[in-house]
Design brief:
The chain contains four helices and eight strands, in the order ββαβαββαβαββ. It is of the alpha/beta class and 124 residues long. One of its GO terms (molecular function) is transferase activity.
């Protein structure tokens, strides 16, 4: 995990492995900030959807029970959202390096779309 101090806040950049392990142990809430269309086509099973276009940092819950880790397609949008959360007062926030593309490249499980039927299908 990489960390960056930004005043009174810390931005953490987690690897896919770190996210997958913490997610499996139910230690984090994984929030997907891609569009609803991207999420519907393929997503990490159990990740929550909070599209960047509708993101309101002040509405985030506290992190006393589970840490929040954002992800997007490549890591660019999730970093922007994480920085917005820091600006809204989150003192420690994280995002996943490389986004969903890195998740798939690491052969982690996800829900995709069966192109023949349109049905959600486990992948990876």
């Amino acid at each position: 995990m990489k960390t960056e101090d930004a005043g009174s806040s810390v931005l953490e950049t987690w690897t896919v492995e770190e996210v997958a392990e913490a997610f499996d142990r139910n230690e984090i809430v994984l929030i997907d900030v891609r569009t609803p269309q991207e999420y519907m086509f393929e997503h990490v099973e159990g990740a929550l959807l909070m599209p960047m276009a509708f993101f309101r940092a002040e509405k985030l819950p506290g992190q006393s029970d589970k840490r929040i880790v954002f992800h997007c397609g490549s890591g660019v949008r999730s970093e922007k959202v994480a920085r917005a959360a820091m600006a809204a007062g989150c003192d420690r926030i994280a995002h996943m390096e490389g986004g969903f593309g890195a998740w798939k490249a690491a052969k982690k499980p996800y829900i995709g779309t069966n192109m023949a039927t349109g049905a959600p299908t486990p992948m990876g």
